[in-house]
Amino acid sequence: QVQLVESGGGLVQAGGSLRLSCAASGSISSINTMEWYRQAPGKQRELVAGITTGGITNYVDSVKGRFTISRDNAKNTVYLQMSSLKPEDTAVYYCRMIIRYQYQAQYWGQGTQVTVSS
To answer: Are 65 and 81 within 8 A, CB to CB?
Structure first.
């Protein structure tokens, strides 16, 4: 059984920063892609950022230059450093990992609320 636990969300003023963390635990042989998604009220869930095993990153255009995704393979953890936050960044943020043990499967975190006030 694999569990992803997120932390770091909260309320911040526009222009501020937050750092999200997502740690995987359980039966894990390797973790391939690690990603962050977000879902705002009334909107579809969107991919915010991703990072491969080799450290290649990708970002949605709206967060480029403001958000940085990173990973610590020894800790099975992915981070999202968010800076220059805007009210439109307000959403529930979810991490997703592709994890291999006896087989490969995707796992999701429980979500963490990020609220940016104007």
So the answer is: no
Residue among 10, 19, 6 nearest 94 (CA): 6
- Give Cβ neighbours of residue 117 (< 8 Å, ≥ 6 apart): 11, 12, 13, 14, 87
Segment-wise mean pLDDT, segments of 10 residues, the chain, 118 residues: 95 98 96 97 97 96 98 97 98 98 95 97
CA 52/CA 42 separation, integer angstroms: 30
Helix and strand totals (H; E) in the chain: 0, 11
Please report the pLDDT score of residue 108 as a whole number.
98
108 residue type, one letter: W
The answer to whether 9 and 113 have CB atoms below 8 angstroms apart is: yes
Burial 39-66 (b: 16+ CB within 10 A, else e): eeeeeeeeebbbbeeeeeeebeeebeee
pLDDT tens-digit readout, 42-68: 999 999 999 999 999 999 999 999 999
